[in-house]
TrEMBL record:
HAMAP family: MetAP_1. Binds 2 divalent metal cations per subunit. Has a high-affinity and a low affinity metal-binding site. The true nature of the physiological cofactor is under debate. The enzyme is active with cobalt, zinc, manganese or divalent iron ions. Most likely, methionine aminopeptidases function as mononuclear Fe(2+)-metalloproteases under physiological conditions, and the catalytically relevant metal-binding site has been assigned to the histidine-containing high-affinity site. This is Methionine aminopeptidase. Belongs to the peptidase M24A family. Methionine aminopeptidase type 1 subfamily. NCBIfam families: met_pdase_I. InterPro entries: Creatinase/aminopeptidase-like, Pept_M24, Pept_M24_MAP, Pept_M24A_MAP1.
Length: 256
């Protein structure tokens, strides 16, 4: 069941979203060659703790409970990278995904960052992936069904010669991080028949296109969490928590 949120509830989600935005601002300040992913994670974890928020990712069940406040995925890693001793190098691109719960409400956002000077291919990948997210923001108020938005996101990615990661999707969000509906970044007959949904005021979605330069096929690392492209091609990931209101889209994890 999809739950539509009231204006009051969306305001509470905005508080969580802005804390997540602050986390990304902190990461953006710190990302540079020579820094470890553990340092980035600690900065976010400390920020959430100081605010009295719950780090949503920490303790999520899996092969082992997820041990960090952030998922930090580098280059060919798509999602769920575990922060640690890895040192970021010039030319890397690093996706940082994080979420927080405060006052009973959740916010979730991911961003991909350049580490120093990066290749033209990496720049294009990041631009196209971020543009796919922007297309969703622009179309949510004017389309009737999510599949219509997802089709345009997919077109943006594939017309650039890249691949949408179809095994991973966005989600509804509210009092818990993952709620109905599932929010794919691509269109398919199966989704239109079984999972499509109307776009109505009160809908709050975590929209998160994930894109690969090469093929979308993935493999799971031995840590039980990190997912990478099988062909080792670069990937990017951008995500905002978006509320659809009667006056348009509110980016709860974005700048006011």
């Amino acid at each position: 069941m999809i739950t539509l949120r009231s204006k009051r509830e969306i305001e509470k989600m905005h508080v969580a979203g802005q804390l997540v935005r602050q986390a990304h601002q902190k990461v953006a300040e710190l990302v540079k060659p020579g820094i470890t992913t553990a340092v980035l994670d600690k900065a976010v974890d400390d920020l959430f703790a100081e605010a009295g928020a719950v780090a949503l990712f920490k303790g999520v069940p899996g092969k082992v409970p997820f041990p960090a406040a952030t998922c930090i995925s580098v280059n060919d890693e798509v999602v769920h990278g575990i922060p640690g001793k890895r040192i970021l190098k010039e030319g890397d691109i690093v996706s940082v995904d994080t979420g927080a719960k405060i006052g009973g409400w959740c916010g979730d956002s991911a961003w991909t960052y350049a580490v120093g000077e990066i290749s033209d291919e990496a720049k294009k990948l990041m631009e196209v992936t971020e543009r796919a997210l922007q297309i969703a923001i622009e179309l949510l108020p004017v389309k009737k069904r999510w599949s219509q938005v997802a089709k345009e996101m997919q077109h943006e990615v594939e017309s650039a010669g890249f691949s949408v990661i179809t095994t991973l999707v966005g989600h509804g969000i509210g009092t818990t991080m993952h709620e109905e509906p599932q929010v794919p970044n691509y269109d398919s007959r199966e989704f239109r028949q079984k999972g499509d949904f109307d776009l109505r005021p009160g809908l709050v979605l975590a929209v998160e296109p994930m894109v690969a330069v090469g093929r979308e096929d993935l493999y799971l690392h031995g840590d039980g969490w990190t997912l990478s492209t099988k062909d080792r091609s670069l990937t990017a990931h951008f995500e905002h928590t978006l509320a659809l209101t009667s006056s348009g889209v509110r980016i709860l994890t974005g700048e006011d």
